[in-house]
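Box S2. Input/output pair 1.
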Amino acid sequence: GRGGSADKARQQVQAMSRGAGPNTGGAGGARGGERQGLIEMVQLLSKRNLTPVAVFCFSKKRCDSIAHSLGSMDLTTSEEKHTIHVFLEKCLSRLKEADRKLPQILQLRDLLRRGLGVHHAGLLPIMKEVVEMLACQGFVKVLFCTETFAMGVNAPTRTVVFHSLRKHDGKNFRYLLPGEYTQMAGRAGRRGLDTVGNVIVAAWDDIPGESDLRNILTGKGVSLESQFRLTYSMILNLMRTEDLKVEDMMKRSFSEWRAQRAAPAATAQLQAVDEGLARLARTPWPATYLGCTREEVLEYFELNEQVHELNREVQASIMTSRAAQTALGSGRTLIYSNPINGLPELAVLLGDTPASCLTPQASSTAGAGAASVLPRGTGSGPGAANGERRLALLVLHQPGGVDDRHLRTVQQLAAAMPQRGPKPQATSLPDEFAGMVAIPKGGAGGGFEGMRNTKRGGGPGMLPRYGDAGGLPYMLADASLLDIEGIGRNKIKVDAEDILSGEWGAGPEGQPDAQAQAALVAALRALQKTKDQYPEGLPLPDPRADLKVSDLNTATALTERSSLITLRSQTKAAADPSISEAYALIRGERALLAQRRELVHKLSDAGLQALPEFHKRVAVLQQMGYLDAEQNVQMKGRVACEINSTQDELLATELVFSGVLKDLSPAEAVALISALVFQEKSDVEPELPEKLSNAWKQLTKIALDTANTQAEKGLSIDPSEYIREVLHPGIMQVVYEWAQGTPFADICSLTDVMEGSIVRAVVRLDQACRELLDAGRVMGNMPLIRQMHEASAAIKRDVVFAASLYVA
């Protein structure tokens, strides 16, 4: 097909673009075919006067390698070369002679002289500013840059080229999001100079499919997500002030914005619930046949709720087991948990619910869910919905006003359903057998027994259906397996075919025809006899012997449920035939009270999403001595408030109080602290002096203890992952040598970390030293003050702290 041909063509283009053979570059470099394609593209854009061009790559090393692969290309005039040279000399004059000869500076000078440039976070800050200024003045004709160039620098170009549409987001590779593409592509077109901007997708590495490309170009923007995170420093600082509570800060965060926006509606809902409770309180207590009091009905209700809770734990696995499915045959007695009135009622299974009887399932006003329409599915029988088996039950029912309210709701939903058209005339042999249903032996899974004709009448129609037969009130119900509270040991004789295929409405007051009525009377009398025979409750099968339950927890829960059912059947309310209205009153009241608790929690500070994490972090701070039992900030907490430049203020504070820094020289101390500041990865293992190496091992152990304490208090922290996230020793040797006075050119050879990343880390490290110096003042620790002062002075020199061109 067309899709397969397109995929095959795309694979061929990708194979050609990879450029196999001697010209293929190494890892991260520009491949032979790719390099030639770049040269041709840049020449074409230059010839058509479509420069300056910004080429977006999503790797710092790839930017450098591609730019250096275009060594033969020269895009500037002699006059432009002179202007660039003079500008560079002026900018670099503030550096020492040795720093001006750094490899990165020499390479970038050569590129800029020819109209090429590189811009990414790995550049020295001064060279990044030089590139930005020359790009804004139009001297950089082709700039190879990462996406940060599109964020913070106002330097539009005439053309934007995407080297690839895939990037690594810190976890895995993915295609650009529509917002990311728009941000970068928006650099194309200079206001007042270009009537249109040009965007080219080169994508040598990975040509996207049509759907991926369509999503990148025209997809919807990503929804805003709150990045609010609770930190120990935030908690400690807020606890030191009386003007603002932590809970107030949480409420003002974007993460709680939706909840706070919904607060007025929740308040109105709470008021309506309170009014409903007041109405129920004014309602007279319904009189029952046995004179059950409110306390007796409440006891019955609570036992019922305990049974329901156990049902939710085990019923799904039990009712779908082979033993239970085999037992669920026509005539089996059951305990039916009626979702309409909430009462357990004795029932007999007629079979799977016919498709014509499937109905909108509506909860009562105090019931357990919103109305839903159950379409015909493909489950175990004709009444299956969404793959779930549906059962037709004849229930020995306790009538009440809740039935009328529920029936009205069902009729309204049924009226809203689309009407079926007239049944077509039989025109073929299969049509002659319409209405014939296969009868399995012994219920589900028992083999084939024969055919039955369901065309005698229209059946009972949509269920539930209420009535009275032989003086016994009943309900025909459509039940799910989860509505079955228990499967009885015994079966009764029931003519399910006569009931389900009878001519309903043929008798008085909508009752069925005489044949179906007789079947109903016989079945209901058998049910009543069974109920009288077992006044303490229907005997249920043994979990292990009968239901073949092997799981100990499930068997224990079933045994406990049987005990509760027996206890429930012994209550006065269980024997009361007119308990329905009183039970509905208690049920509605308890439902409103549960709703009220939920709304009160939602509107209170306890409903804040971050509050559980806050309590866990407070427990950690108390355990480690940052807060006392009354949540007053202690000395360790005051020190932690001073530290903001490390990746974990708790670990930095523990390092200070452990005494590890006390035995180190300023150079060794600042090198150790760099592991808490540096954030990138390095494949080079640092070579450390013995004292610094021992200190590193001690810091690792402190980090492990800190992680374990947090995990013990319930925070989702994996100790090994925590150490990998907060400790990065990649530039410890570099910082140690730099603090010892080693030239910058020499320390760059000790690591694979780029020069710009080293500078950024050292600048941040200087800030960390000043924060630890302030912490020393809080503690009154003069040795720490002197140590941090000397460490800061040792690293604060030369190219690392060269003044910015924008402010100097």
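Box S3. Input/output pair 2.
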Amino acid sequence: VTDFTCIDKGKREKESKGKGGRLTKTHMASTSSFVRARTPLVVVKASSSITHSSTATLRLRPPSTCYVSSYTSKNGLVKRSSCAPSSTIASKAPTTVGLSTTLCRVNYTMNMSRAFSSVPDWKTKQEAEDNEPKQASASIVHSQQSSDNENAHKLGGKYTRLSQVPISEILKAKHTLRWVEPVICHTSTVKTAIQTCIEGNLSGMMVVDRDETTSESSRERGRVVGMTTSRDLLRMMAAGFKNNEGAEEVMNKTVGNFMTPISQVIYARPEETVGTCRAIMAKLGIKCLPVLSHGRVEGLVTARDMSDYGVEAKDRGGKKNYLRDISERVGLSSNTSMAEPPTYLRAHLALEQKPLFMNVGVAEMPHPFKTGGGGCGMNARDFGPRDLTTDPDMSEDAYFVMETEMVDNNEGSGSEDEDVVVTKRPVVYMGVADGVGSWREYGVDPREFSHRLMEECENLLREATNKSRVITPSTVLANAFERVKEENIIGSSTACVGLFDSVRHQLHFSNLGDSGIIVLRHIDSNVAGALKRDRKTPRVQRKSDIRIAFVSQQQLKSFNHPFQLGWTGEDIAESDGSSFKTAADSCASSIHVRRGDIILMATDGLFDNVDIDDIAEIALEWEQRNGFIRGGDISAREKRWAAGASMTDLSCEKVTELAEMLCIKARENSLDNSVDSPFAILAKENDIMWSGGMPDDCTVIAMHIVGEPAHKSIL
């Protein structure tokens, strides 16, 4: 720290005059401070428990100089009394330095720009307070009480926000009021599961195998094999009715055949907070979180349980609460009706009645240091003085895009004996696969597995054309994988397969590993919800309102170790530590798409090197260059659509350019060592030193949703 100035809150705040660094403002109990620091820097966090004899252990990269400053406090004013280099670090060994007494707990933070992204981001003040013991002085506690009073809840004599309460406390409170074991046997029927949910007021249940135990003490409860929720039960019933099954047949189905397998269950730890669990549930769209402690499920926590914890029993019932909270809100009048859709949605709703169409463009670029014969250099020095590789046949990535016709799932079964009119509708399938390059060390060509997997996906769909119902992406991926194993092709790859339903305006997909899908959409900030508005940039300075509407979930065992489909020549027993998975372990989901959306399916070569916000900027540049949107004016685009000017043929012709622009940008960033890529930033967060880009194969399938079919093939 080169300079430090701290004054009373009532006085005018001054900036420090230290050299270099970025200005950052931090708050203490009764003062505001400005800190200016050099970069890179080491932050030593001081608390009221520090004495004159306290020490801190630092691990720095040599050579580094450690500056230790001492401070004095008088009448609430903190003043630096000395600042001198205490020692020079010459080795990687931990170094112990002395710390001075500080009367106020201070947390110095520094927000790094991308130019300094090689320095890890420091924890924010709120995160630090979540993790450290509450040792603040009385003045600090009093200050926090006054600022957090509205959202405060009393817990064990301490005041804390509900978002900071450990999830174990929520579980204790729930079990104290009523103990219901959320368990059902894997052989139970859907009917039994529904009755158990209603009687126990349960949103979810753990599925157990009573015939197996994990220990002597778990003999009665059995071994957990999965999880099911009330939403899963509704899905089971909907699937059965769609297949024209009788009500009794649906109700007698076994829960174990439709549950979420144990390998895909998302869980919480007892020490995690309500805020953390709410964020996980919101991001993943799940209703229940099992709380896991020492290999045992202590119970299930739902959003309702978290909300109930913040309301005391006396605030629920009684005359006062009824009159205040319920009396004026209970009961609807007999002439109640539904409101008309908002004005800003009417144009979109008019388009909902018509089918949408998709223009597709593909670009692929191999690893820049690929060599003939299947070799690959780690860097330019290994590669040698020659032009970078551009031959896509050398890429370990593979893809397919196929437009076909299949029987509508809402019609009959598609059999010839059925006396129903079978409706066929066009669908578009697409997929990418990224072969795992480490197979090269064992004399296996990594390209063979991924390329064959995509070929078999296409073969399956071609065989099913005009004969069967629409096949889900996960089924396509599972059957193609079985065919690859039957052919005894050694290797592994990540995979993502998607299906565009033009009639229902949906994109279904199944993703395993670190490939994925993003959806870009123009959302008018004037009418968008608060969470969708761009509040960082003033309205007059915004070029457009393009937003990231969806990002698919990726799956990794650890950093740079994604889930993958693989075959070694023999079956490998499933284990928690294996990165080999099946199509059933993939993340399967559906997205509702709109006219004008840009959908990108790509391998990790894109996402590891190009930030998602930069991807959105490139997509906007492509739109504006070709006149699909002018000046970010969404209403003008909708008027053009209403007038019949769809520009579909131009979109079909130019969409490949978008895929190429993204591949080129990924290649440029992968070779740039001056700015950290998303891969490098994530590597540092996982304690791995990596700077610059990540050279890799890159494949991008760019899809533009339009309102009319093009006059030529989508590819």
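Caption for Box S3: Residues 1-157, 412-419 have pLDDT under 50 and may be disordered. DSSP finds 18 helices and 28 strands in the chain.
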